[in-house]
Amino acid sequence: MTKSAFVFRVLCSLNIFFIIIAVFPFYIPPVNVSAATGPAPVITDSSPPPSFSPDRPEQNSAVYLLPAMATDGADTDKPVYDPYTVTERKEKKLPAALPDVKPYYGVKTVYLTFDDGPDRYNTPLVLDILKKNGIKATFFVVGTQVEKSAPLLKRIYNEGHAIGNHSYNHIYRQLYRSPAAYMEQLRHNDQIIKRILGVRPRIARAPGGTVGSFTKQYWTLLKEEGYTDISWNVSSGDASRAKAADLVQNVIYQMQNKYLWSHAIVLMHDGPGHGETVKALPSIIKYFKDNGFEFKVVNLKTPPAW
Ligand SMILES: [Zn+2]
């Protein structure tokens, strides 16, 4: 480095230093976390990964782990997870097919589902609300979000909620390039989830829904690899810029359709930017509680949405 270049660098660093000193007194920390914008900070996880082997998965009595042969026994109300990935099942010649379980149609049953998380801001608030209400829900998580918030995925799992696969990156043009590309994203996300939890989901939800994106080949591959796709039949409408009160009304309006009462699957989002969903959630839960609904997690007993 020449002498003049060195002097220039020193002057530049001093400038940055003075700018920081000058600006700092005016910095006001954000007070409303749900209204915060911009990329969420990465939550660092200092705990070691679980020392996992499929024969000794992490203990969590709130969930049901599919046995290696997985031919029956999944008739449970708990969330269902698999200690084996698709590849491990193939290598060990274990069945990939899901056990045949009779769908459960209740008198009044609701499945609250949250897509696109986990998110640094919204997911902890959603989990707090669920805990306060003593109910469980289902989270369809995106791999790139999981990578940023591994401890939140653990919290969802440890608190007895169901986790579903919502692709690795949620980018439609990559995801729906081909059936193989879609399956590759599911497997990739599974690997990330399994590294954190020691188990992986068997339920998945196609970003944007399957209509218009899936061809017959997608359904064939999903079945071959043993995933079950979970759609929804009630939309909170929170993919738009609607306010919390509108989200509550959207749900109540659609619930006038009594066909849905036996298995209402409600679509919401806990991903980045969904503060209005967090605000609406207590009222949505209250509506279902006041009307005597039971809250269930999505598992192999959950009927098809339509
Ligand atoms: Zn989504």
TrEMBL record:
One of its GO terms (molecular function) is hydrolase activity, acting on carbon-nitrogen (but not peptide) bonds. The keyword DNA damage does not apply. The chain crosses the membrane at residues 7-28. It comes from the Bacteria. InterPro entries: Glyco_hydro/deAcase_b/a-brl, NODB_dom, Polysacc_deacetylase_ArnD. Keywords: Membrane, Transmembrane, Transmembrane helix. GO terms for biological process: carbohydrate metabolic process. Signal peptide: none annotated. Residues 108-296 form the NodB homology domain. The keyword Membrane applies. This is Polysaccharide deacetylase.
